[in-house]
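We modelled the chain as a single entity of 422 amino acids. Its sequence is:
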Amino acid sequence: MKEKTINKKTYLAGLLGEVMEWYDFTVYGFFALVIAAQFFPSDNHYVSVMSAFAAFALGFLMRPIGAIVFGYIGDNYGRKRVLTYSIFLMAIPSVMIGLMPTYETIGIFAPILLILMRMLQGLSVGGEHTGSIIYLSELSSHKNRALSAVVPFAGTILGVLLGSLMGVTIYSLFGNESVAEWAWRIPFLFGVLIAIVGIYIRKHLPETYSADDKAQSRGTFKKNIKENIKPFIQVFLLNLSFAVSFYTVFIYNPIWMQKILHTTKTYSLEINSIALLVTIVAMVITSQLSNRLGRKTILVFAIGGLTFLSYPLYKLMLGDSLVDLLMAQSIFAIFIGSLMGVIGVVMVELFKTEIRFSAVSIAFNLSFAIFGGTVPIIATWLIHSTHDNLAIAWYITIMSAISLITVFTIPETNKRENLENI
């Protein structure tokens, strides 16, 4: 049997698409406090911030709908088409947000338009992320499949990192007053440049889905979902830990550092940027290790660490030393990176080709919509209502414990008998 190969251009296309998608989608979180004042003004700062975070969550709630729409397209008309459509659907709303009038100019229409743009971006992410994981995995051999499945996650991290670095740059160059007035728009407008490059590179990608595959999948979606309900639930539960920890540590923590620890915006984003780089290193190393040690071993290490060490790591953050803060964030990054190193390939290997795009996309995005996008609003509510700055640590612990139990119910997917469908 001929070994599958994948060229660098294909990797680059998958990587750049993810960078653009996640830069545009998460940069909102880094400027959430400014957006709250511009689009959701209120005499009560808590209400204003919660409203901005609610708009953030709405984008995530659209992801399962995007997964259904793009999942159907991917399983019936090919993976490549999804990757082309989704990149447009992310870029256009990003530019619109950067140009949009604020509440002071058009009143209630400002937050309404903002929410609509976030919803469109949520639809896009519902197809793009899992689409890239599946696409690259299907082009790869058994030997390099885990690494290929990591490329979209690396794009995710680089996109978030780019957003974080953009935040540092904007605040450093313009200062708080100018950022609040107009400079917050620059990061949203910048996203269109990445989109242009991504669309150009993806134009000539090969298709991984044959005419025979399409014929098999048509008219069998309900039947296939019913037959695959167990792995569908397993993928949903496995991603609880991933969704909650990722968006707490990399999106909410910079805000938590500013509000609770009174670090500067620049320093909190610098710490975040370093931790994101640590995540990429951990991701690449563990993806390779999983070929020898097995996917489940890495999952137990990563999710087990998040289950048992989240509270101690947050306690460490409360110390007086900024070194402790960086150390805790970096240890979190090792666990999250290790989880990202294998969870993509595990999801792909759990499903057959004809149902894979729909099943993985819906299960993954449903988990992230309910438990990932709501992290900022839940974290803010938990701390506000309990008056405990460490309350969010228990949220990560509980969700990770559920995922850890789930790990022991799945088969070891890195076995030859479980790879024949790919």
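As a brief sanity check on the tokenised model: Residues 13 and 341 are 19 Å apart (CA to CA). Confidence is low (pLDDT under 50) at residues 416-420.
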